Amino acid sequence: MCAGFNQDLRQRQSQSLVLAPQLRQSLKILQVAALDLRSVIQEELEANPTLEDVSNETDSLDAAADSSLDNPAAAEDEGADASPPPTDDAPGDAPESLDFSKEFEVLAKLGEDWRDYLAEGSGNQPFTSEDAERRQHFFDSLVIETSLQEHLLRQADMLDVTPEVQDALRHLVGGLDERGFLTQTPADAALQAGLPLAAAQEAARLLKTFDPIGIGALNLGESLLLQLQNKGRGESLAARIVRDHFGLLTRRRIPEIARKTGADMDEVQDAIEDIGRLDPAPGRKFADDNNRVVVPDVVVEKDEDEWKIILNNDYIPRLRISNTYKEMIARGTLSKQERDYLSERIRSGKFIINSIEQRQQTIERITREILKVQRDFFEDGVHKLRPLTMTQIADVVGVHETTVSRAIANKYIRTPHGVFDMKFFFTPGYENATGESVSNKSVKEMINELILLEDKSHPLSDQELVAKLQSKGIKIARRTVAKYREELGLLPSNLRRDYTG
């Protein structure tokens, strides 16, 4: 009995988030690092003829001030790169100021939906520090570029497997090269990590099913086969060539491949072209740029008894709207099409100038609140770091968490204790016995110090570390201690034991 087919037409309503081009542009300017911002601005200078870079002009501010005395109307236009707002009825005017709390209203809806989702799923359960970490990770993930290891470990965390297989997966993922290939066999991994061979083999099998396809292979040939199998072409001529004649393939010995496979030359050529469209390094798209130069966006330093915040404007060109084009519009000799084009370009240029100014103001305001909360850190160092969430800063600054998340992305602060990613200062924490808040980074430092000072012939187990921390008034679960220890790159107690004594 054949199944019947039925066609009908139905209307369905749905909501989608659509960002206007100018909003996307302001998001980009807010999010990029200092060095990258110069490139973004340079692109705008090349695309918009009404924008001028006056960074190299000496006494430009004095000249603008003198001009304002002689011609107040011209001074208003010259001030497009500063704070005075243009009048509402002037052609091509931009808004008086970019209020990111309003500009990000559509993004705020995303945050509200997420909070509603959490509320529905949490019931009456207490909001623990681990919940705070997961929530913070959601906001961090809005802007942070995910590494290959993070991408794979998230997939691993979703699997319902034994702890041994999870440990083996983490070990294998940590050992992948930049292409996403294994650097050791499952047997070697099991021996090195002290895990059952069966667990390592199962982890290796599962890893090959992860996204991106082709990850977890031992070599290029196996990776290409995984990709072909995923396309349902595991028995194709291309798969046979990769599996049985890889050496000939790398030397492009087409006649010899044709003879050994029994296929004609054209078929072999087509199969090789199919292979050429596969990804030879599926993990490379996630590779970090380890040679990236870090330029602090803001400096926090102490001048006698006062802390000062200094924004780094060295890499931000100073822009203004060209007088030439404003005068062309004012003369009234342009056609309507030409006038509309220049008016739109001037409006866009003013929007860029205001976006850059608002970006710097937002970074400064966030930094000022970080300094208020983390003053003990700036005075004494990491062990005095306090718990801080983006919600706290957002509430004080008057913006949404997503705005804070984007504003601190790829930004760095130079402090008396070194240069830190701005995200470093945002961390959940614990409350000790005296009611004082302690950040999880401070807890990690305590764990590191306890292990550093332990008796190497009788190293502290994770449960003993829990007891030591509880004696300091910090209540923490053993699994959390184990997680922090692994994040610190410290081995478990059975592998830290010094047998020489």
Key attributes of the depicted protein:
8 strands, 4-stranded mixed β-sheet, Arc Repressor Mutant, subunit A, two-stranded antiparallel ribbon, alpha+beta
Summarize this structure briefly:
The chain has 501 residues and is an alpha+beta fold. Helix content is 53%, strand content 6%. The chain is built from 25 helices and eight strands.
Word description of this protein:
With 501 residues, the chain is α+β, with helices and mostly antiparallel strands. It folds into 3 domains: 21-76 and 96-118 and 138-145 and 294-427, no CATH class; 147-287, no CATH class; 436-496, Orthogonal Bundle (Arc Repressor Mutant, subunit A). It has helices at 21-31, 34-47, 60-70, 72-78, 100-103, 105-122, 129-140, 148-157, 163-174, 186-193, 197-207, 220-230, 237-244, 246-250, 254-261, 265-276, 323-331, 336-373, 375-380, 390-397, 401-408, 440-452, 462-471, 478-487, 493-496, and strands at 51-53, 298-303, 306-311, 319-321, 412-415, 418-421, 429-431, 437-439. The chain has a 4-stranded mixed β-sheet, covered by helices on one side. It has a two-stranded antiparallel ribbon with strand order 1-4. A hairpin with a 2-residue loop joins β5 and β6. The protein starts with 20 loop residues before the first helix and ends in a 5-residue tail after the last helix.
Structural class per helix/strand content? alpha+beta
Strand order of the largest sheet: 3-2-5-6
The tally of beta strands, per DSSP, is 8
Main beta-sheet annotation:
4 strands, mixed
Outline type = flat
Number of helices: 25
Uncertain segments are: 58-125
Q: Kindly estimate the percentage of residues that lie in beta strands according to DSSP.
A: 5-15%
Rg, alpha carbons: 30 Å
For the terminal residues, how far apart are their CA atoms? 79 Å
Number of domains: 3
Indicate the percent of residues in helices.
40-55%
Mean pLDDT reading: 75
